[in-house]
Write a structure and sequence with these properties.
alpha/beta; Glutaredoxin; six-stranded mixed β-sheet; two-stranded antiparallel ribbon
Length: about 170
């Protein structure tokens, strides 16, 4: 009887662990779904996802006033530098209402040089992508489908985290 209860309790704990919600910053894979967004370059021209994408694209939503974004941004910039040759492309999309002056100041202050920076002037792309908090990073495959998401600050310098993202390139 005691063994049966222990086995049942262990099975319950295992099931709970496997179905637990993701923590902030986790890479969460999903069934592929099309992403239809447009963001603006510094000249105000719209760019659809096909124009800004690579073999694997990280669409990284951020803002200058977001503390977690500021902490995370140099690491995602280093991630882009380290994985650029593998076909990974980071498109950093700012939601700043103050526009390019705020974006440029933040990027300069943080020493970000590797990622492509865009603006979501009216936050239409963020709404279309279902962004509910910052930072949020969509992982998009070469066919323009979201295949994973990081809500919150990801651990971009962690080798296991990087390997999990690179593994998505083959899907």
């Amino acid at each position: 009887m005691i063994r049966a209860r222990r086995a049942l309790a262990l099975a319950f704990l295992l099931a709970a662990a496997l179905t637990a919600p993701a923590s902030a910053g986790d890479l969460v894979a999903m069934e592929p779904k099309p992403v239809a967004i447009a963001v603006q370059d510094r000249d105000g021209n719209d760019h659809g996802l096909a124009e800004i994408s690579g073999k694997l694209t990280l669409v990284h939503f951020w803002a200058s006033w977001c503390g977690s974004c500021r902490v995370e941004f140099p690491a995602i910039d280093a991630f882009q530098r380290d994985l650029r040759d593998s076909g990974v492309k980071v498109a950093a999309v700012s939601l700043d209402r103050l526009g390019w002056p705020a974006i440029d100041k933040t990027v300069g202050d943080l020493g970000v040089h590797e990622v492509a920076v865009y603006h979501d002037r009216n936050r239409d792309a963020a709404r279309a992508a279902g962004v509910v908090g910052l930072p949020t990073t969509l992982v998009v495959d070469g066919e323009g489908r979201e295949i994973a998401r990081v809500t919150g600050a990801g651990n971009w310098s962690d080798p296991d985290f990087r390997a999990r993202i690179q593994a998505l390139m083959g899907k």
